[in-house]
Design a protein that fits this description.
The complex is a heterodimer of chains A (500) and B (130). In chain A, the strands form three sheets. A five-stranded antiparallel β-sheet of chain A has the order 2-1-5-4-3. Chain A has a five-stranded antiparallel β-sheet with strand order 7-6-10-9-8, with helices on both faces. Chain A has a five-stranded mixed β-sheet with strand order 11-12-13-15-14, with helices on one face. Helix content of chain A is 51%, strand content 24%. Chain A has five domains: 41 residues; 101 residues, PAS domain (Beta-Lactamase); 109 residues, 2-Layer Sandwich (Beta-Lactamase); 76 residues; 128 residues, 2-Layer Sandwich (Heat Shock Protein 90). Chain B is of the alpha/beta class. Chain B has one domain: Enolase-like C-terminal domain (TIM Barrel, Alpha-Beta Barrel). Chain B has a five-stranded mixed β-sheet, with helices on both faces. The relative contact order of chain B is 0.17. The chains are: A alpha+beta (500), B alpha/beta (130).
Amino acid sequence: MAPRPERRVKAGARRRAGTAHERVAAADGALRASEERFRTLIEKAPIAIGLGRHAVTVYANRKYLEMYGFENVDEVRGRPIGEQFAPGCRAQIEERARQRAKGLPVPSEYEAIGQRKDGSQFPVHVAAILVQLPDGPCTAGFLTDISAREQALEALRGSEERYRALFERNPLPMWVYDRQTLRFLDVNEAAVLHYGYSREEFQSMTLLQIRPEDEQVRLREEVRDIEGYRFSGRWKLRKKDGSIINVEILSHDMPFAERPARVVLANDVTERLAAEEGLRRSYDDLRALAARLESVREEESTRIAREVHDEVGQALTALKMDVAEVERALAVAGGAPEGLPGTLTAMGRLLDDTMDVVHRISTELRPGVLDELGLEEAVEWQLEEFRKRTGISCRFETGFAGGSIDRAVSTAVFRVLQELLTNVVRHARASAVHVRLSAEKGRLALEVRDDGCGIPSGRVYAPRSFGLLGIRERVTNVGGNVSIQGEPGRGTVVSVSIPL
Amino acid sequence: MNGKADRPEHLEIGEGHAIHRPEGNVSFLEALDLLSQAIVYCREHGIRRLLIDATKLTGFGTLGTAERFAMGERLARDARAAVKVALVGREEVLDPSRFGMTVARNRGLFTKAFSSENEALAWLLDPNAE
């Protein structure tokens, strides 16, 4: 019976021994696997991890080496941990590591300046903890390169400061107001200086308080309706000293202080308007003076034309009749002394020529046909004279039903036509001119079209185009307007429109 | 209940202004909450001038750009341009370029940071202050 238990014992011992062996092997395997897992985890962690003891690096993972530019761990193992930081940070970091090892309270997280193997520096966030390892305690550091974050923050800082500077240092007064309450939310320095209210006073006021009463209804309507960018035109604003100024307002929506708001730029145009008003008055005065001079000149021309025609013309006619009478008397008396008949004939021709000259001068000064037969006939006559003088063919088209035209208007139109025909001869190199005169919708229209070279666009408003300037002045003086259009090689069209 | 904020601890109401002197070892976010509560209280109670003396708040280190931005943005949001705020801080905590103040002013909070309460109060009470 004995062997059985012995065998059982031996077998049991063998089983137990085998189990222990297996258990040790399994435990060993598990430990190795665990070690391997943790090693892999640490090694492949996406964050830089370093272990230090007595302020000396004992381990660094792959991310750590990559961040600092090392190729293998032996480059850092055994080196002071301070070497991975900028010189200015080293003493503090090593001191913290020593205090942490002693269990003294030190910040577990901080930011510092890291220094790579090549000496370049970068901002780094460090989280450090004291860990117990089988071979003793050590400091585990988890490091993050925060260059990108720092750059973003720097950009944010720049953006905020730029915005502030653009608003605060803008030389034009600016403010932000609450769309619902119309209260000022912010003002810039230029607004404070220009309006005399302090920043605090502004912020206790509404837009209405710097508006004269007669503009408050308009302001409420404007504020209610506007969206997005808006040029709101000209407004009157009241300064703290009570003076009223004219401003031009530009504004745009802008969320501000958690409120729907608008940012406003208010450009004071008071002085500019005064200057413009002065200039306008001066221009009006000059225009009135020019019109008056033109009127006086026209009246003078008319008077001289009449005098020349009536006085000189009649005197020449009387002389002509006298010469004829002398010729007849000499013929009755049986002949004249030798040479006298020839002299009398020459006198007669000279008188005829002089009468023609007198007639031409008189007509040029003021064509009688304009006063006697009216504008339409005068235009027709003028075109015929022009054709005879220049050889340029003329076509006259009229849709003018007649009726009385103010003398100033007919004179202006006739003189404009004369100036335009002069331009055709001087500049256009045209072979034909087409003139239309019509009256429609209470306006008198004159159109002069030629087939010449076409006026260049730059000449239309050239300051030294005195002829065109004179045309514009004449037409403006009777309340009309002029359009001048030229196309190279296709002639020029001048359209005049004057209210009747 | 009128829905208004309770009066924060350490807030004194004076003639036309209030002074808040919070204390304690707190995190940055807790500190921000304390400042914010005082501003909201003043806004809701029509107090247009507030001095915050934060020199006795400890527990957080030097503020970075992100924290300063968050502070300026939060305080301006809470003030809604209705409260003028003079902030007193320890010199080592204040940013030389006053970035937080810039952020706050950009968002409508009329504010300025000082290292002395006297200077801060003078500025706060000056209607022509810049």
